[in-house]
Amino acid sequence: MPLRAHKLKMPPGAAQRFQAIPLALLFLLLGVVILAIFINGRGSNESIAQSDLSKSVSNHLVVTAARSQPTVRFMNGTDVIWQIPEFPKAVLFIAHGCNCRAGNFWDQSAACPHCIGLPEDRLIVLNALDRKFAVLAVSSSGRCWSKEKDIAIVKWIIEWWIQENKLEKLPVTALGASSGGYFVSALAKEMRFSSIALMIASGVFDSMGVPVGYPPTIFVHMPKDLHINRLIKKNMEALRKKGIDVKEVRCMEFPLTPALLSERIPGLDQAFSLMLFKLFQEKGFIDEKGYLKNDGRATSWKQALKEKEPSSEKYEWLDHIQEELNLAFAYHEMTSLPIDDILHWFESHMGSSTV
Ligand SMILES: *[C@@H]1O[C@H](CO)[C@@H](O)[C@H](O)[C@H]1NC(C)=O
């Protein structure tokens, strides 16, 4: 979601430096990535602690078998939305980032008129459903998650929902992004998860330490955010020292293409995607290779679009476009690109919670 985030301090020139990496180095990097994928693919070797995700996103079109068919309930003062596939094998609780809500994870439908299906968020859910995870999302009580206010409520809701749907035998996993990542890292002290995923968040280990029996933790982040990058390194070391399984997935920037937006945002058509790409070129928002020069939030693309197409009907996709731009710049955004790594992490740590 367009995590209208706190602190967007980019070290000056960081992006330019990145783009100046010579081609040879890029090939070398690609080789390393392929090797890492190869080694990772060989199975459950947990000593592989890191994989880099510099996906060129060559095929942006993502096909999942699952469809958005949520059940929506308002309870304990918040939105609770879920979808359970046939024969679920595990539970996945998802926590959004600041300024976001549970309705971002499912497409708009008669069952959920207020859902908006942001591109990355919906793909996380659809992929999880494909892999037979029963998915549950809750909205935070305030703009961001609060440990004091939300932990008791969310714990209560998850436990109620598991009982209500007779899922007691299944391992329970959790994924949180940004504020939701800090929240999930704290929730994991109060609840038993088989494993967790913290996205663009380093966790609250500074204040709570590493609790005994803490679940295996995968950190999915965008190393361009040097601050979080540094904290994750430190926290991974602390977790590792206590014998807890950890892994890191690093998500890198990728160039925009004329079809990127129409391929990743259902409902946004090709002509509009191409028009916007050309506008970005005209305005100099992207370089000659298609890389954004700045974070989506710091690019005045909405203004430029308004000037060019004052009567555009496509404004319903502004938040969706914003999310993809932030994703391409790879500084701080929800991402579904590493969803395979995340689900594989959950699947390979399912033994630990079933008594
Ligand atoms: C949530 O709502 C239920 C039913 O209204 C209530 O029994 C329960 O105590 C509430 N839980 C919390 C943590 O407030």
UniProtKB/TrEMBL annotation:
Bilayer-crossing regions: 20-39
Domain of life: Eukaryota
Keyword terms, alphabetized: Membrane, Transmembrane, Transmembrane helix
InterPro entries: AB_hydrolase_fold
Protein name: Uncharacterized protein
